[in-house]
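COURSE: Structural Biology Practicum
ASSIGNMENT: Worksheet 4, Part C
STUDENT ID: 0417
INSTRUCTIONS: Below are two proteins. For each, the amino acid sequence is given first, followed by its structure token string. Answer the questions at the end about the second protein only.

PROTEIN I
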Amino acid sequence: MSPNNKRVYYYSLIASLGGLLFGFDIAIFSGAIPFIQPDLSLSPSQLGWVASSLYIGCAVGTLLFGKIAEKLGRKKSLLLVAIIFGASSIAMGLSNHKDTVVIWRIIAGFSVGGASVLSPLYIAEISPRNIRGKMVSINQLAVVIGILFAYITNYFLSFTELNWRLMFMSGALPAVLFLIFLPFLPESPKWLIFNGKKEQGLKILSRIIPPAQIQEEVAFIEGQQHSGKTSYSISAIVKQGFGFLLIVAIVIAVCQQFSGANAVLFYAPIIFDKAGMNVGDQLFLQILIGAINLISTLISMQFVDKIGRKRLLLIGSLGMSILLCLIGLSFSGDFFPSYLLSGFVIAFIGVYAATLAPVTWIIITEIFPIQIRETSVAIASAFLWVACFSLTYLFPVIINTFSSVQTFLLFAGICFAYFLFTLFAVPETKNNRV
């Protein structure tokens, strides 16, 4: 690895700690479910509301942090994310009423939404094209590490008296880690040059790309700058001729959520409870799910720049559709014995982690030109969080209203529809400039 690429790798690792916060917070609630539900006397719909309230903040955070990052830069915006996340994690653990938990989860979601936009955006902007996919995948790797850490934390804290409270408060630890390493990050050189700070941007570019490519890169950024920025609205993007790309990005973002993977990641205890498992087994299986999630993400990083984004989406959506059918049918006991359920679920998460999970964020950052990137990434991410809110709120109600078979066959149909959409509408972005 060249010295320039090493620096990009180190910077990407630090920035990806925002992804770790993201993964930790979305997963920590799943382990709290068996304890917070009886402690606060939550009905299925109330449980869905407490769980999904995080994503109201996420949707707002993606939109506002897109504008904040445009004005303040990527580095200062990431600092704000870490501070809000740490403070809200402690406050959630100290809450004594479901409404107070909801308020602090919305505030925490604001920082999680910001991290979901800023970390992959920053990494994409400091990475050369030939390794950009792998570097952005580091953020997804950090997300799944955060999920695994949350599952492990949940398992051990489940044996304590303050279980769900300590689970929430433990989120302050990765936030502090992020704050410690953030000072070592440079500002995005592309943001600096695009905002008239060419000399500072050139200094940073000289550290991360070969000297022969610097002038070409600067000319490209300045060319994008001269083409102008759009206002912060969907209508302005459509008028500039990028409406179809925005629709594609929104569909990709929404389908990642409604693929069923996050229902498994968020509500595995409920799913395994339907199969008759006790709480200890449920939380231990979550650790296995987190481990396969991590291993599959590592595998994906080796192929995302070789196979291409679109092909991975096709493989993932079709494979997940098939596995969701198997998961649903295993609940009935008529087609597959129920003990295969755990294996099907783990395989399903493995396929998701190797395909849809990392590729979604890569495409969203690659598909748009720089003059509308902050706005477009923020809009697509906001739709992602609205979909995530809807899924998280509705899943406890759906699985209690319909059978488990019907629930997972519905997700299978959505994945197959996504496969067809990808086949006919999604462009390959592997060689796009960022």
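PROTEIN II
(use this one for the questions)
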Amino acid sequence: MNHHLIAPSILSANFLDLRKDVEMLDNSEADWIHLDIMDGVFVPNISFGFPVINSLQYITDKPLDVHLMIVQPEKFVLEVARVGAYVMNVHYEACVHLHRVIEEIKKAGMKAAVTLNPHTPIALLEDILHELDMVLLMSVNPGFGGQHFIDHSIKKVSALKEMIVKKNLSTLIEVDGGINLETGKRLINAGADVLVAGNFVFSSENPIETIHRLKSL
């Protein structure tokens, strides 16, 4: 039985016809819609902001998985909640007072997730893991879609899964970057619960079929 979730990233969608792509996701087996917000400071790129997410919440019933690749994400907790986010993802590297930010995310009624860049060790989550609903591991350097998968991510997922099991937690592991059928299968075998796929879904000839294949791994 396949229990893993698929969260297509609309960073790779057609922004001139976003409604069409979101309707496609609604008709697919996608579980969540992943939204990458970038500020050009924390990552070397700028994507989209609240007006886009706000309009999305009215055209889809899929839960919105909002990933803030920005400095000072704590400034926007209430704003992310207001646009209907189900999960709010903040970067470990961007939060000096991570515990407080996690508390605020939960208080605002969202699931709390922490993202680690490829170079950030999972050991740093030791004292916060029990507070988290999910950990997002970046398997590429964040900022751009369509990048090459960093192979070390497989070991990282296994080690994090071990830590979660040892602590008897139900924290989900999400992975984002370079996901395809081959890397997706390896990640699920290693213990990943949620796969984020952008380019692989949206540049395929039949995105609905591609999502189905990812879901069937």
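ANSWER KEY EXCERPT:
Q1: Residues 23 and 85 are 18 Å apart (CA to CA).
Q2: The mean pLDDT is 96.
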